[in-house]
Specification:
The protein is α+β, with helices and mostly antiparallel strands. It contains 3 helices and 13 strands; from the N terminus they run αββαβββαββββββββ. The chain has a 7-stranded antiparallel sheet, with helices on one face. Strands 7-12-9-10 form a 4-stranded antiparallel sheet, with no helix packed on it. Strands 4-5 form a two-stranded antiparallel sheet. The longest helix has 14 residues. The mean pLDDT is about 95. The site of N-[(3-hydroxypyridin-2-yl)carbonyl]glycine has 12 residues, from β8, β11, β12 and β13.
Length: about 210
């Protein structure tokens, strides 16, 4: 069974540099990898530079992983919890990221970092920009798994009114070009249940960090 038999992907341009690929990812395949990845590098709530604990639980796979610490944000080759390298990005993840980027007009995307975010109902992600990556010509490819969430898009400066984009299991957002440095966040997640993972949303963001 190929992608288009099981899924009905559709491409929407949200604004210049932001492409939404609905129902693009076969999340059963992605979910099969998650326990192995999180077994090696468990989810944890990192500390912000302000010294607070983040609500969203995070981990990484790939040659590099994004970490937040009281000293700042950075990409590391080693999981600070274990001292081991982050687990490899599974082939199915890399293929998905490359194909999604291609659909959005970014050819040859080879991520070296994949941040894994986990939300439970009531959790939100405050507006931020992703600017810890060396080459911002590459997009970020973001994959939603499990219960829905509302992604909020702002502008190039903090504040203002958000454009709300509902994201469902299998949806992929590609975020690059003139939109690479726009503020975005995730609204408080509503209570819902996914048959496979329960009251959870998992988000994968693929990046070219170095
Ligand atoms: C999330 N996503 O959807 C959080 N960042 O859980 C992000 O922060 C994000 O989706 C940059 C590009 C795409 C994203
Ligand atoms: Fe982000």
């Amino acid at each position: 069974m190929d992608l288009f038999t099981k899924l009905r992907p559709e491409k929407q341009s949200i604004r210049e540099g932001v492409t939404l690929l609905t129902s693009f990812a076969d999340t059963d395949i992605l979910l099969a990898e998650i326990p192995v990845l999180l077994g090696a590098s468990p989810l944890r709530r990192m500390l912000t530079p302000g010294g607070r604990q983040m609500q969203v639980a995070m981990s990484n796979c790939g040659p590099l992983g994004w970490v937040s610490e009281p000293t700042g944000y950075r990409y590391t080759a080693y999981d600070p919890l274990s001292g081991n390298p982050w687990p490899d990005i599974p082939l199915s993840f890399r293929t998905l990221a490359r194909e999604a980027a291609e659909q959005a007009g970014f050819s040859g995307f080879e991520p070296d970092a994949c941040l894994i975010n986990e939300y439970t109902p009531g959790i939100r992600l405050s507006p931020h920009i992703d600017q810890d990556e060396a080459d911002r010509n590459w997009p970020i490819v973001s994959v939603s798994i499990g219960i829905p969430a509302v992604f909020q898009l702002y502008g190039l400066t903090r504040g203002g009114r958000a454009e709300n984009i509902p994201l469902y299991d299998g949806d992929v957002i590609v975020f690059g070009g003139p939109a690479r440095l726009i503020y975005h966040g995730v609204k408080k997640v509503e209570r819902a249940r996914d048959a496979r993972i329960g009251e959870k949303r998992i988000n994968l963001t693929f990046r070219r960090a170095h």
